[in-house]
Amino acid sequence: MTLEGRAGRRAPRAAVRPALLTLVLLALLAGCGLGPFAGDVGAGDTSASASPGPEVPAPEDPSGGTPEAGTTPTPLLEHETDPNSRVGGLVPGFPADLLPVPEGAEVLVSAVEPIGDSGAYQVSLNLRTTLAASEVVDMYRQSLTRAGFTESDQNPPDAVLAAQTTFTRSGGDELLVIGVLDRDGVRTVTLGGRLRGEA
């Protein structure tokens, strides 16, 4: 088959953009049973409630991996055409007061997207920092507990993760999951979940 034929059979880039944006986040959240992040909540469904699962897979470093032979990798900047996400910075409306970026950290991807007409929104943040994993978690712990979130009792973290924790508010309706991967002296932080209020 010619290259033109193969290109014609590829899915439109817009269709795969959300999957690329949340590659790391979905791996982390899938183990927590978060329906809205797995795409099983309808646009108007306001009854979904999240319940942490037994094990959280480790997030993958977005810089890792190589393109398949004979293919051209899709540039990350393609996400910048999506108004709900931004590569290399915070998307407009990101709740930075609640979920601050550590000083000197490199933001890889951020996103804020309404969940139908439910009044809730999905938020995600992926960044790299030289802070220790415990320092990263403590920074978010202080911010979130001040805002009324409660940290869940921790199961032993995934063996690949340096740290992981979950925070809930509003009887579990608002939920945030944090995972920290420690590799070569740099921590890759994946944070995401469901919030309510203004975004």
Which structural traits does this protein have?
Lipoprotein; 5 helices; 7-stranded antiparallel beta sheet; 199 residues
The share of residues in helices is 10-25%
Fraction in beta strands: 25-35%
Assembly classification: single chain
Mean pLDDT value: 73
Shape, please?
A: globular
**Gap between N and C termini:** 47 Å
Low-confidence stretches: 2-79
List the strand order in the largest sheet. Answer: 1-2-3-7-6-5-4
Number of helices: 5
- Structural class by secondary-structure content: alpha+beta
What topology does this entry show?
Blueprint: H1 3-9, H2 13-21, H3 23-30, H4 35-38, E1 85-87, E2 106-114, E3 120-129, H5 133-146, E4 150-151, E5 163-169, E6 174-183, E7 186-196
Antiparallel strand pairs: 1-2, 2-3, 3-7, 4-5, 5-6, 6-7
Helix pairs in contact: 2-3
Describe this structure in words.
It contains five helices and seven strands; from the N terminus they run H-H-H-H-E-E-E-H-E-E-E-E. The termini are far apart. The protein has one domain. It is an alpha+beta fold. The N terminus is likely disordered. The radius of gyration is 17 Å and the shape is globular. The protein has a seven-stranded antiparallel beta sheet, sandwiched between helices.
